[in-house]
Design a protein that fits this description.
- The chain folds into 4 domains: 2-179 and 595-609, Triger factor/SurA peptide-binding fold, CATH 1.10.4030; 199-236 and 455-554, Chitinase A, domain 3, CATH 3.10.50; 240-251 and 358-448, Roll (Chitinase A, domain 3), CATH 3.10.50; 254-352, Chitinase A, domain 3, CATH 3.10.50.
- 51% of the residues lie in helices and 17% in strands.
- Strands 16-5-18-17 form a 4-stranded antiparallel β-sheet, with helices on both faces. Strands 11-6-15-14 form a 4-stranded antiparallel β-sheet.
- Strand 8 and strand 9 form a beta hairpin.
- Helix 10 (186-197) packs across helix 22.
- Mean pLDDT is 86; it is low at 1-36 and 611-618.
């Protein structure tokens, strides 16, 4: 079988090589790689001395973008492209780290292992393929016939399977080694059970820092410098920008909605007449490109899968019938139920989004073109204001935080946030951004670079943090006085004598937050350690000092635990395995020598081509 896999490899690799060379020539001639600033051997990262080429990163990013564009059926925003570029980078770095770990541990994969896995352990994507299922279940016999068919070879499936298992089998072997000693004892399970089922209720007096006047504490410059040096990384900030924005929305009218509904009615009549099949119409017409590519198939399942209006209409249909147009927030749907068993439905749909009619869309597009001609990428910032006056488009201002989408007045404005923090300079005007709901153009009015700020920029914040700790020190003395008085009288009497309030929580567990007490802090721990009715010594947390009295406490039911132990063990084993894997992979990154060259690439690219950096540069 492996020989069969490789028989088709020649032509696939010829295609890949041609695509790669063609793609590189396109990038080179288009200036994407700059004028000799970026070459086929330029690394985007170096991991323990092993290079990851920029061309690999660009290619994988493009692959991810293509997949998401096809699944969403629309143009991606800059934020989405930036996210996919980060995903591609992390994936490539992770693959290199894993390969290096395979070599270090001597992990290899044999041809026999690949053949057996391909024959008897198909990937999830193939197991879910409708063509390989019988009555909704994966059919191994169909899968074996497919593997032996010429079609599998022609489609390159055999080569894909070999590549998949050549990557997955060593990963599985590595993870088995890493997880081989994961074990959960009965004692550990019982502790976990108690943490989530023991409960307590406490009365308390809280001493909070805001009750201490600033005049009672002194913070010196030496203390500020020492605190800043020790906690410098905690003050790291993302880049922040102020932008001016003009938007041209695609305004949907009642006439637009009526036109889409009329189209849905006409399509239903066409389907019921037999002129087209539902599956062909879904592939050609549905705005839901994921289900549309499968003939509108939404799979088989029970209730609570869809929004209420859609689901109510689906369950009212008899199998084989097509619904009238059903309006949801996504648009108008035509629904067809293929089969029903109880509350389990197998159904399809065609989605028609409510969009501007052609004549309205043309007017919106022309207005956007005029905006772009006047201001887009203009070197003079005043062109932005000129466009606003000429076209009578109001200017709004918004604050951008690096890594977060821009919202103005509660409305999301795509792409502007990523543009503003990805190499633009003060006064720059963006290109015209477009998305389903309209157009936007922005001017960068101010920018504060991200990173660890200098001490002067955070001096007041450092001072406030030190002052809070000193105030807590002062409050400890006040709390000790109260605790002593409460021990000889009561918490209520001692508090009343000092005009303090006594609060009381609801019942809470060790892992749940307690009202006004906090979560997973020293006060929660004291609530489960103190004898019932006893007055605590002062309990200091990050935010306050407490004096507590436990009112009542309930203990976990051992019999209930024993009945649930097997299920709980499986849940905890899965959780610990996942945690161990995450810690292992993170440790590989922590100890690795990784040189991230993305910012340098973006800078070289901009300098060579006299253009702003790529939008997916960090």
């Amino acid at each position: 079988m492996l020989q069969g896999m490789r028989a088709a490899t020649k032509w696939i690799w010829v295609f890949i090589a041609a695509a790669f060379v063609g793609g590189f020539l396109l990038m080179d001639t288009s200036g994407l790689l700059g004028r000799s600033a970026i070459t086929p051997t330029t690394p985007v990262a170096t991991v323990n001395g092993e290079d990851i080429l920029a061309t690999q990163w660009y290619a994988l990013t493009q692959q991810l973008e293509t997949g998401e564009t096809q699944s969403s059926g629309r143009t991606l925003t800059l934020e989405e492209r930036e996210r996919l570029a980060d995903q591609a980078y992390e994936q490539l770095v992770g693959e290199v780290l894993l390969r290096q770990e395979y070599r270090r541990r001597g992990i290899k994969v044999t041809n026999e292992e690949i053949e057996n896995a391909a024959r008897y352990s198909p990937p999830p994507q193939l197991m879910q393929s409708p063509e390989l299922q019988t009555e909704g279940q994966f059919d191994p016999a169909k899968y074996q016939r497919f593997l032996a068919s010429p079609l599998a070879r022609q489609q390159g499936v055999l080569v894909q399977l070999e590549n998949y298992y050549r990557s997955e089998i060593p990963k599985q072997k590595l993870f088995e080694q890493v997880l081989s000693d994961v074990y959960v004892s009965d004692e550990r399970l019982w502790t976990f059970w108690k943490d989530t089922h023991d409960s307590a209720q406490v009365s308390f007096v809280a001493f909070r820092p805001d009750a201490v006047p600033d005049s009672r504490v002194t913070v010196t410059d030496a203390e500020i410098r020492a605190f800043y040096d020790e906690h410098k990384d905690e003050f790291e900030r993302p880049a922040r920008a102020i932008v001016s924005v003009m938007t041209i929305p695609r305004i949907i009218t009642g006439e637009d909605s009526a036109a889409v509904r009329a189209k849905a009615v006409a399509l239903k009549q066409e389907l019921e007449s037999g002129a087209r099949t539902f599956e062909d119409a879904a592939r050609a017409e549905s705005a839901d490109t994921v289900s549309g590519s499968n003939g509108g198939d939404l799979g088989r399942g029970g209730r609570d899968r869809f929004v209420a209006d859609f689901e109510n209409a689906a369950y009212a249909l008899a199998p084989g019938r097509i619904s009238d147009p059903v309006l949801t927030p996504f648009g108008y749907h035509l629904i067809k139920v293929d089969s029903r068993s109880g509350d389990t439905l197998s159904l399809r749909h065609i989605l028609l989004r409510i969009e501007q009619r052609d004549e309205s869309a043309v007017l919106t597009d022309r207005r956007a073109d005029s905006l772009a001609r006047i201001a887009a990428t203009a070197e003079d910032p005043a062109k932005f204001d000129e466009a606003s006056r000429t076209l009578r488009i109001p200017i709004t201002r918004g604050a951008v935080i690096e890594g977060e989408p821009l919202t103005i007045g509660g409305e999301y404005v795509p792409s502007v946030g990523a543009w503003a923090t990805s190499g633009a300079e003060q006064g720059d005007i963006s290109d015209l951004f477009d998305w389903e709901d309209g157009y936007a153009i922005a001017r960068l009015d101010s920018l504060v670079e991200g990173g660890v700020p200098k001490l002067d920029a955070v001096k007041d914040e450092v001072r406030a943090r030190i002052a809070q700790q000193k105030k807590l020190d002062i409050l400890l003395n006040d709390a000790r006085t109260l605790a002593t008085a409460a021990a000889s009288t009561s918490l209520e009497q001692a508090a009343a004598g000092r005009s303090l309030d006594v609060g009381q929580t609801e019942m809470f567990t060790r892992t749940a937050p307690a009202q006004r007490l906090g979560r997973l802090n020293e006060a929660i721990g004291a609530a489960f350690a103190l004898p019932i009715g006893a007055i605590s010594a002062p309990v200091r947390t990050e935010d306050a000092v407490f004096v507590l009295r436990v009112e009542r406490r309930t203990q976990s039911d051992r019999a209930e635990f024993e009945a649930q132990k097997a299920t709980l063990r499986e849940q905890q084993l899965n959780a610990y395995r996942q945690q161990r894997l995450q810690e292992f992979i993170q440790n590989l990154r922590d100890v690795a020598d990784i040189e991230d060259n993305r910012k340098n690439l973006a800078r070289a690219q901009a300098q060579a081509a006299n253009l702003p950096p790529l939008p997916f540069a960090p």
